[in-house]
Specification:
Elements: E1 13-18, H1 25-41, E2 43-44, E3 47-48, E4 51-56, E5 60-65, H2 74-91, E6 100-105, E7 108-113, H3 114-122, E8 131-133, H4 140-146, E9 148-150
Antiparallel strand pairs: 1-5, 2-3, 4-5, 6-7, 6-8, 8-9
Helix pairs in contact: 1-2
Length: 161
Amino acid sequence: MLLSFDKLPLSSRVWVYASDRKFTQKEIISIRKDLEYFLSNWTSHNQNLETAFELRYDRFIIIAVNQQINNTSGCSIDNSVRFMKKLENKYQVDLFDKMNVIYKKDKHLFHKKLNEFISMYKSNSVTQNTIVFNNLVNTIREYKDQWEVPAKDSWHNRFMN
């Protein structure tokens, strides 16, 4: 069952997929339809899941599941990964490289490979206070509180020292 994001409890499980490029407005409309269809029909052990999604900054796909109602199983998670791989192929983007860094400078977002980001840090082009996206968050609560944070408060920090 597809709900709006704010209807799910803060303990709901999230998966954040970051694109290596910005989606076009036409792609966003199509991705939204693809997500609505998949999430409306997503099940675990033949039980409907309470789901939601957000598309943020024309670059991030965030999927959430209320696991208080039904837990996602290995098979249901595998189905979601297959679905996301299809999106990746359909739109010719990389959604699975967790070592990519997306950071914010002023109001603009930039995508870099981790080694490039580290080089930028060493040359003072970015700092420990540069806002990065911590795509390793696990719950809606973490997503709301710890997703968009200074690099010093994210997993990125271990590579910046």
